[in-house]
Amino acid sequence: MAIYLTEGEISQLLTMDETLSILDELFRARARGEIINKPRVRVGYPGGNYNLMPAGWTTHGIVGHKSYTVTPKGASFQIVLYGTDGSGLLAVMGGGRISGLRTGAATGYAAKLLAGAHAGSPVAVIGAGFQATMQVNGIVAATGATDVRIWSRTPEKRAAFAAKMAETTGVGVRAATSAEDALDGAGVIVTITASADPVLMADQVKPGQTVIAAGINSWWKGEIDPALYEKADLVVVDDIDNAKVEAGEIMRAGELGRISWDRVVALHDISGGLRAGRSNAQQIIVCNLQGIGIEDVAVAEVVYRKAKERGIGLELPA
Questions:
Q1: How far apart are the first and last CA of the chain?
Q2: What is the spatial distance between Cα 3 and Cα 89, in angstroms, rounded to a whole number?
Q3: Contact 184/205 with Cβ under 8 angstroms?
Q4: What is the pLDDT of residues 126-164, one digit of tens each?
Q5: Of residues 298, 283, 236, the one with CA closest to residue 263
Q6: Nearest alpha-carbon partner for 267 in 112, 143, 136, 142
Q7: How many CA within 13 A on the CB side of residue 156?
Q8: Is the pTM of this model over 0.90?
């Protein structure tokens, strides 16, 4: 019988470390051809939009989707999971907690995979909003970083955010006095803003640094200077088909003649050993993460299995 899981119940069943392990497994599985992932479908309507992210894991026998609406009042996320063996609907669950954890975990996973020897070095985070919380949690959990610098345009906001994250992570998190202060000596730079204009310029990025752009999934916004994509030795995305319709920064860089899609590498190809990742300590790597449906579906499957084992969730009538 299918079950319904609330956000509170999901919080009892899922940790950041578990989410990191799931993402590692799924990206390796995708390199083996076991994953189905379709680009996000957006349906606009007056005052908002509806979004659908379908995906499946063939060897696990699951398919499903995350769907959500966005309006000026906020976003509402749900995940629906099905079995492919004829069992049909398995679960309906809140998607907010899973979305947050898998987004932060994806950044942490990419940092650990791409930064090489710099993975545990200082981390610069540009952005101090709600989404930045899971970014810090994910990168600390994945890399073991103990020096995190926060930069945003509002001094009070970045100071409060840094203090909160220092308390919750137990590592050194501080508010930077300037963007240059945050970036100086950082091995990994994370951008997590909703900015329509670049918050990180090409000349600010030095040899050896890994940039993870995680805040934008639309053409008309862009956190990263298009020139950085030309400067980068390696450009990585979580899904090439999805990036071609959502990674506005790369699309804009392409229109300006600064990059072509044949230079862009999928994260799962690096995970699975099909393409090279970092080959030396001086390379500049840029990873643009849009967020993909298989992350939600894969994490939701683990939550569902654990809920069934523990007898958690509301049984839905047939």
A1: 7
A2: 9
A3: no
A4: 999 989 999 999 999 999 999 999 999 999 999 999 999
A5: 236
A6: 112
A7: 0
A8: yes
